[in-house]
Amino acid sequence: ARLLDELGLARATPASLMARWAAAADDPEALGGRATAVLGAGPRGPVVADLGAEGPHLLVEGPAGSGRTELLRSVAASLAAAERPDRLGIVLVDGRDGVGAGGAAGRQGTG
Hints:
Blueprint (H helix, E strand, L loop, with lengths): L2 H5 L6 H13 L9 E7 L2 E6 H4 L13 H15 L29
Antiparallel strand pairs: 1-2
């Protein structure tokens, strides 16, 4: 499954993300204010980690080629889709001199 499918988004455009953030701000049961990261697809829907309830950190470990970097990119994208940039901070640390997660580096809300 595609990450966008798991997030319930047809396309990740500025307009669709702003609409999602606005809807979450109006609905206390929606995504806004929760640090829920989509880790992948499961048999009953998205597999998620609630970083607000389970701790504000996530450690991803594995050998080269295991998909760590792709998982980190998906986690960063799912968090960014769920929360406005002014309310979200993401720090990605890669043990390979920071080259692996470069796709997210430099985006607003990442460091």
